[in-house]
Amino acid sequence: MKAFFITAAGRTEIRDIPAPVPSDGQVLLKVRMVGLCGSDLSSFRGLNPLVSLPRIPGHEIAATVERAVGPAARQFRPSQDVTVLPYTSCGTCPSCRAGRPNACRSNQTLGVQRDGALARYIVAPAEKLHASDRLSLRELALVEPLTVGFHAADRGRVGPGACVCVLGCGAIGLGAVAGAAFAGARVIAVDIDDRKLAVARQAGAAEGINTTRQDLHQALAELTGGDGPEVVIEAIGNPATFRAAVEEAAFAGRVVYVGYAKKPVEYETKLFVQKELDILGSRNATAGDFPRVIAMLEQGRFPVEQMISRVAPLDQAGNALADWDADPAAFTKILVDLDAGEGR
User: Rounded to whole angstroms, how far apart are CA atoms 9 and 46?
Assistant: First the structure.
């Protein structure tokens, strides 16, 4: 079967590899569509410390069941469309023992620490699959990145009536906007791109701030009566926005970091104490986040088409990555259509 590899920094190729064979409790999946994420771009740039090359990328998956093996997989039927929870967990590390396997010390994510889904077929344990008979393939491929934002909102204990500021309206930030809005919060979206802010409003943001034209502190003060937002979710990964999250959060507020800064961050640490802030990290997503995102998408509450920047066939995935590398601001989500040119 055909598979897409990142072979070295800036280099990709299509290779022929053996098709996988499912064992007991596993499901053979025909991969239909895969989203590319920021970790895939980092791998393409040769900057992902978690990836050894060559690597098959891809963990945002829409697939169709071909064959389920064994009693543990019997709930899945051929031709059923599913998405996949792409993480592993050891079950014994401190995170797993605490009931937070998404932060497993030994996690291996598809397309990162192990080969991913940009191949015609993959196998997956039945317990990692989430089905929907109502979602399109494009929607199923967006479930995993949206769950990451939903999990960030959950980490921030976002509930009805909370005021939440989301810094960054890329794919993960849009998931945080949608997750906070789905939980009943009032969401303020922040970005430097009016197009992304418009999508954020369609995803549930009540207000938007473009920091190329507006001062962030002043705008948030005006929108919150001087208090600042109760929760700030940082989804950019920039030292300046890491600091801004702490500076702008309300007293007794919560800061959630779902991006991570690529350079050291210097803080005025007195704000941690003066405001008695909760500073929280957010990693991946839980199995429970998947049904919530699926429910939101089934209700038609997310601007799916507006989030998608490009759909490319498998043989053009390398070009899509190169274009994203050259102009990151121009893309929110790239999908690779493995059916293109060969039918279902």
Answer: 4
How many alpha carbons lie under 13 Å from residue 41 in its C-beta half-sphere? 18
Regarding pTM above 0.90, the answer is: yes
Query: Strand 26-36 relative to strand 121-125: parallel, antiparallel, unpaired?
Result: antiparallel
- Determine whether 145 is exposed, middle or buried from the number of CB atoms within 10 Å of its CB (0-12, 13-18, 19+): buried
Percentage above 70 pLDDT, the chain: 99
How far is the C-alpha of 39 from the C-alpha of 176, rounded, in Å?
Answer: 18
Give CA separation, 202 vs 150, 196, 299, 307, in Å. 16, 10, 14, 10
- H or E element, residue 201: helix 194-202
Q: Please write the tens of the pLDDT for every residue from 186-209.
A: 999 999 999 999 999 999 999 999
Beta strands 11-16 and 333-337 are unpaired
In 3-state terms, what secondary structure has residue 35?
strand
> In the Cβ-directed half-sphere of 235, how many Cα atoms lie within 13 Å?
30
Angle between helices 137-155 and 171-182 (to 10 degrees): 70
CA 120 – CA 74 distance, rounded (Å): 22
CB-CB contact of 250 with 271 (8 Å): no
> Can the peptide bond before residue 54 be classed as cis, meaning omega within 30 degrees of 0?
yes
* Angle between the N-to-C axes of helices 289-298 and 137-155, in degrees from 0 to 180, rounded to the nearest 10: 130
Cα–Cα distance for residue pair 81/134, rounded to 1 Å: 9
Question: Nearest Cα to 166, choosing from 220, 239, 127?
Answer: 220
AA identity, residue 52: S
Q: Which helix (H) or strand (E) holds 150?
A: helix 137-155
Answer yes or no: are the C-beta atoms of 178 and 302 closer than 8 Å. yes
The partner residues of 167 in beta bridges, in order of sequence, read 190, 234
**Tens of pLDDT, residues 244-288:** 999 999 999 999 999 888 889 999 899 999 999 999 999 999 999
Residue pair 287/132 in contact (Cβ under 8 Å)? The answer is no
